[in-house]
Fold this protein.
Amino acid sequence: MRNDTRLSRMLHVLIHIARHETATTSDTIAQMLNTNPVVVRRTMALLREQGFVRSEKGHRGGWMLAKPLAEITLLDIHQALGSSTIFAIGLSTDHAECLVEQAVNAALSEAFDAAQALLLERLGSVTLEQLAEDFEQRFAGAEKNADHLSGRHCLKG
């Protein structure tokens, strides 16, 4: 099963957008993510609907933040993207009448619920500003890695 990387990828994009004074186009974001600009527009539209980004059309148009990074949490973005299932592990329901399956599913459900609650709490406690500050510290302390710092793998700037 393929991992859902939308949260990680959109957090990455938002930090880059915050570092730019001008709008970032869907084409530029698509290049960074190695995807199609239509996919970028569709995903960014989810964030726009929740008021995290805004877009401008035309020459010099593109995506910009609509809120300060300090006002956006990881949980906000997770929820804006549709709150995909956090765990790929699922319960077996082939034999719902089986008492063993019921006992196993009850134990697993309890563990999954507790783990999900803890993860969502943590996502809600971390702002994008904190991520940006972590990046800035890493950037300041990093040796000049020509590939990453030149923007080869990320948006330039």
The helical segments are 6-19, 26-33, 37-49, 74-80, 99-125, 128-141, 146-149. The longest strand covers residues 53-56.
